[in-house]
What does this fold into?
Amino acid sequence: MDWRVVELGTRGYDEVRAHQLELVEARQRDEITDTLLLVEHPHTFTIGRNKAALANIFAAGDVPVVEIERGGDVTYHGPGQLVAYPIVLLREGPERDLHRFLRNLEEAVIATCARFGVVADREPGKTGVWTGPPEAGTRKKLCSMGIACRKWVTFHGLALNVTTDLSYFHRINPCGFDSDVMRSLASYLPEVEMAAVRTALAEELGTTLSRAA
It folds into this structure.
């Protein structure tokens, strides 16, 4: 895919959100090409457009809570979690389908996990990427997703738990689920390295979104 990949390291949530909005406007004006931001955030809880989800935060403590534009419920961002924000112009035709765009993001994450020997897939009726046997109550969630779109330019995106401290999820009901549902790649691969996952995810997103165009 002909796009720009920008690795931001660790940056504050509000700073990166403001940067996304600047990029969205620039992409609408066709001043920049499609852009992928890759980042880790300090500890942050975010709430999507469903403000009733505030009830799913019950012990935020010293972690800031930020209300944002994306779809979805409450989730956690923090060190060891790879966050990807695709700023992509969806062109007229089949591309202008946000459900399809989410499925493409899921496909890229599934392929990324496969590179590291972790079998992951979708959960019927739910957004994100999951792993584990299909029996009810045993599935675990590796990646959460929520996007927004302005004039057919996407922003926000996905959060893949790589070496994330999962204890922070116990302060919320992530995406409305019990906190025990969350897992990380390190839960299955203790030696996994963020840099390798970052490279793999950027490549898989480029491949998947190019194929969808």
Observations:
- The chain has a mean pLDDT of 93.
